[in-house]
Amino acid sequence: MAVEASEYPLQRLAPVQQWSPSIHYAQFQRMATGALPQRRLYDFELLYVSQGEAVTTMYGKRHVIEAGQLIFLPSGVYHQNEVTSFPEAHFLGIHFDFFGELEIQTEADMIVNEAAVAADKFAREAISEAFPPLSSRTIYTPPLSCVQLMERVVEEFTLRPAGYELVCKGLMLDILVQLFRTHSSQALTETSPHDGKLIELMTRIEKAPAEDWSNKRIAAQLMLSPDHTAKLFKRLAGMPPSEFVQSVRHREARRLLRETDLSIEAVGDRIGYPDIHYFSRIFRKLEGITATDYRKLSRIL
């Protein structure tokens, strides 16, 4: 029997022990300003914006995705992606299913051909009594640790060393748990009277990471005490102000190392760490490898 489009995504209640995500595609992407055709997927996609801005029209609404955010695109749901920043936007995209139930040979196998719909091919979303469904929220702001896991998925999927399927499965489970936890923590703070100002300030930090974003200045911007600011920040962002600033700067450093030929010193200066030795220590601490090695690896991917 045919399934109405409004009934997607199909879901399956299953204990987490039965979850076995399979990666079908994982790549860094660039797209010029403009809109893509409306489409549906047989699998699921996490589409993370690392630079620029995009809009996805889905469920009859336009969802703005800013740098540092991702959108969850469910199986079987009509959506249209559009880059609104000029001249382009940069993405990290991961296609997957929750139970390893799809056989994907090419990228075309992930996209529904509306002239020949394979109704039995739509993947099912795993749901658990422990968390609300991932599809119950459209836009997520993943923490730095989650973004790093997504980048590792791209690395494993691209290089395909021995055992990469198992590594990707483990990474994907970790990513899903982090998104579920993010969902829960953000839901708790949606009614806070300070949310608007705090989100606006976080956006400013994202756009100008090199500025002086000390705890004192951040508190002054919100006209709150440093202690109160730290509590609000941790509830909304999942981390205190200093860690949020550090995560934004680290993400921008990774982008500059991947996408430009700036010297290591210049990259540090661009993100607010003019002391190359301090920048190098911080980068290695957060990434696990040196900035130079990260750049070399990113040129392979």
TrEMBL record:
SUPFAM superfamilies: Homeodomain-like, Regulatory protein AraC. Residues 199-297 form the HTH araC/xylS-type domain. Coiled coil: none annotated. Keywords: DNA-binding, Transcription, Transcription regulation. The keyword Hydrolase does not apply. One of its GO terms (molecular function) is sequence-specific DNA binding. SMART domains: HTH_ARAC (SM00342). The keyword Transcription applies. This is AraC family transcriptional regulator. The lineage of its organism: Bacteria, Bacillati, Bacillota, Bacilli, Bacillales.
